[in-house]
Design brief:
Elements lengths: L1 E5 L8 H14 L4 E5 L5 H7 L8 H5 L10 E3 L4 E4 L8 H5 L8 H6 L6 E5 L6 H8 L3 E6 L6 H17 L5 E10 L3 H14 L3 E7 L2 H9 L3 H4 L4 H15 L4
Parallel strand pairs: 1-5, 1-6, 2-4, 2-5, 6-7, 7-8
Antiparallel strand pairs: 3-4
Length: about 250
C-alpha cells in the first residue's frame, strides 16, 4: 500500500483540493483508495459529504481507540473510502499528549488496512496531528502556491521530516512538490522559478492553475473530473495523478 500525505504548514495552497482530486483520480484508474481527513477544519470531509454528520470520526480512532473500520464511509461520487473529520479533532493533541507512542497512533490503526493507496490530508500546521499523518506515511506531496511561497517555511518542513527520520525512524520521503493555484504573473513566475531552482527534480512537471471550476466542484461535492472534465483543473489533476502513479511525465 502506498501511503501518501498531502501537507504544507501554510493554508490556502490547495492542499485539500489536491488530496481529494488525487484520491478520486487514482480510484478512477481502478485502485482501492482510502482518504483520511486529519484536518480539524474538515474541508475534505465537507467537500465530499457536504453537511453529513457522523457518529464517529478520526478523532474517535485516535483518542477513543474506536476500530478504524467502523469509521470508514464510502463516497459514491468520488469512488473512495473516507475517514471523516470534524472540529472536535482540534482537541485531540491535548488528549493524547501524554501517551507513549503518541506520534504513531495513526500508523498503528492503519497498519493492517488493505488498500492500494492511503491518502492523508494533513492540517496546515506542524503539530502533533501533522506528525501523526507524516509518521503514518511513506511519501509526502507538498502543494505550493507561488504567491504564498516561503523558502523559510519549506526548510522548516524539511527539518521536521529529517527529525522524524532520525528521531522516530520514519522512512518518509518527499515524493514531489506540486505548484498550485498558478496564475501567469511576474511575481508568480519568479516564485515558480524559485521553487524549481530550490527543489530541482522534486518538482512535478504538472502545474495546477487557479481555476474557478475547482472551487465550484467543491461546492457541488464532486471531483473535478466529474464536475467539468474539460476544465484546466481536471486536466491538471489527471496529469498529476499520472506522475504520482507512474513517475515523471516526459
Amino acid at each position: 500500500m502506498r501511503r501518501i500525505v498531502i501537507a504544507n504548514q501554510k493554508g490556502g495552497v490547495a492542499k485539500t483540493t489536491t488530496a481529494i482530486n488525487l484520491a478520486a483520480e487514482i480510484a478512477r484508474k481502478g485502485k482501492k483508495v482510502l482518504l483520511i481527513d486529519m484536518d480539524p477544519q474538515y474541508s475534505a470531509t465537507s467537500s465530499i459529504f457536504a453537511n453529513t454528520s457522523f457518529e464517529y470520526t478520526v478523532y474517535d480512532v485516535i483518542v477513543n481507540k474506536i476500530n478504524i473500520q467502523e469509521v470508514i464511509h464510502y463516497s459514491d461520487a468520488f469512488g473512495i473510502d473516507v475517514v471523516p473529520s470534524d472540529i472536535g479533532l482540534s482537541g485531540a493533541p491535548m488528549r493524547i499528549a501524554e501517551q507513549i507512542g503518541r506520534e504513531r497512533i495513526l500508523l498503528h490503526y492503519t497498519r493492517r488496512l488493505q488498500y492500494d493507496y492511503l491518502i492523508i490530508d494533513a492540517p496546515p500546521s506542524l503539530g502533533l496531528l501533522t506528525v501523526n499523518a507524516l509518521m503514518a506515511s511513506s511519501e509526502i506531496i507538498v502543494p505550493i502556491c507561488p504567491e504564498y511561497f516561503s523558502l523559510k517555511g519549506m526548510k522548516f518542513l524539511e527539518a521536521i521530516i529529517d527529525n522524524l527520520r532520525n528521531g522516530l525512524e520514519s522512512n518518509i520521503e518527499i515524493a514531489g512538490i506540486v505548484i498550485t493555484r498558478y496564475r501567469e504573473r511576474i511575481v508568480t513566475n519568479e516564485a515558480k522559478n524559485a521553487v524549481k531552482n530550490y527543489f530541482g527534480e522534486k518538482v512535478f512537471k504538472t502545474i495546477v492553475p487557479e481555476n474557478i471550476k475547482l472551487e465550484e466542484a467543491h461546492s457541488a461535492h464532486l471531483p473535478i473530473y466529474k464536475y467539468d472534465k474539460k476544465s484546466k483543473g481536471a486536466e491538471a489533476y489527471s496529469l498529476l495523478t499520472k506522475e504520482v502513479m507512474n513517475g515523471r511525465i516526459n
